[in-house]
Amino acid sequence: MIERSYPNRIREWRKAAGLTLAKLGKAVGVPGSMVQRWEIGERDLPLARLEQIARALGCSTADLLNLEHGGLRPGEREMLDTYRQLPEVNQKVVDSVMESQQAFRIQPDVVQLPRKTG
Fold it and tell me: Can you give the pLDDT of all 118 residues of the chain as single tens digits?
């Protein structure tokens, strides 16, 4: 269950697909007013409904989440789609490159605690 306060991008994807609240609601078996409540965070959104909405909009559930909650930017979605279409041997090459770059990831500040001496 996605909590009411949980931000989402349903409206953004719905508008991009050219669907009204009523049409998306019909596609997932609810009134358009319920879709609107989900979009604005007024009602809890069950995961099963989120999956139905994603299918109706032709995207993944991750695409419907805001970035801070695991959503993907369009470029990230494109990279992921490309990766998934690669032959396994090419995926392993990409995996190796990604692993080699882990040391360069931005890390949160680490506080060094004083060590005990003696």
Answer: 554 445 578 998 999 999 999 999 999 999 999 999 999 888 888 889 999 999 999 988 888 887 766 777 778 888 988 999 999 999 999 999 988 888 777 765 554 445 556 5
Q: What is the CATH number of the domain that holds 23?
A: 1.10.260.40
The runs of H, that is alpha helices, within 40-113 are: 47-57, 74-85, 88-100
Domain tally for the chain?
1
Residue 117 lies in a domain: no
Place of tokens 């909650």: 69
What the block records as the tokens of 114 is 């004083």
The position carrying tokens 């879709």 is: 35
Token pair in block for residue 73: 């930017």
